[in-house]
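#lab-general

N.A. 3:47 PM
ok so I finally got the sequence cleaned up, no stray characters, all 307 residues accounted for. can someone with queue access submit it? mine expired

B.Y. 3:52 PM
send it over

N.A. 3:53 PM
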Amino acid sequence: MKKSKLILILILLVLVALYLVLRSRDSGRNRVPLMNIQADLVDHIEIWDSVSKVELILEDGIWKVTDPVIWPADTLMVKEFFRDVVNGIYNNTAVSMDLSTANIYNLDDSQALHIRLKAAGKEEHLMLGNIGNAWDYFRRENDNQIFQTQSGIVQRFAPQIVNWRSPLILQYWEDELAQIKVSHTKNTYTLRRDNGRWYYKDAKHDFEVYFQNFALTKIVSILQNFISHSFLSGDDPEFRNFFKDPYCTVWITDIENKTRKLTFAKFLDERYILLVDDDYSVLYQVEFDTVFRFTRNPEIFMRQSII
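B.Y. 4:20 PM
back already:
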């Protein structure tokens, strides 16, 4: 290769590298916070569209949804929301300065996803839309300028309560349990834990449960992460009527002698609804397998090994 051509190629490579460096620096300078609000002061979040709404409040250091009852929010969803929205960034080069184009980007009031944050008396209200791209478009309330986000927000943080509400109903580790009493349509029995050993007792049986017994393990495992993603309102008289003749009732007593009551009623084929501590403000839908764990025959608790 001739020396002159080699020099030209080297110059071209240097110019390309310089262009990429300068472009990277310019891009970095154009990236600014999505929210003009101090993240650690945020104590109120509202997310809504034309169909539904989710509201979260910070109470005693814990994020909670407010409807239909105050309930802990899903910690993973909140963490991701703060990462992508509250602490998110965007390129502040506007894609449009004309509010008449808002409907093109799904940013008019009826189409947009609304996000409003409150922090120490200050509010920030964004309207976001997606037109099929990986990233969304947004504008601030009462602002004509339209920008593009650096992440997908509209689909990820839709105001559906099932996504925001923690599914955890209760949680016990085995060493926190002292007793489990069960009453169902065919039997009433007690599982008692003493010095790390479990004992079964009903009207006809009284025996120690073998270590890692299948039936006992299934009960202990579900109590470690007792969840439901389906919530119902106990205000409905139809749902309340199901509990007049419950299918199964469970009393869980911990080592501090505190007891929780779980009442299961048959709802649909292979599905049941759960009432916790006789509190009808919210009911939970659970599957047959959940109830079946508590209603096994005594002989299953006598087995020595997992099968």
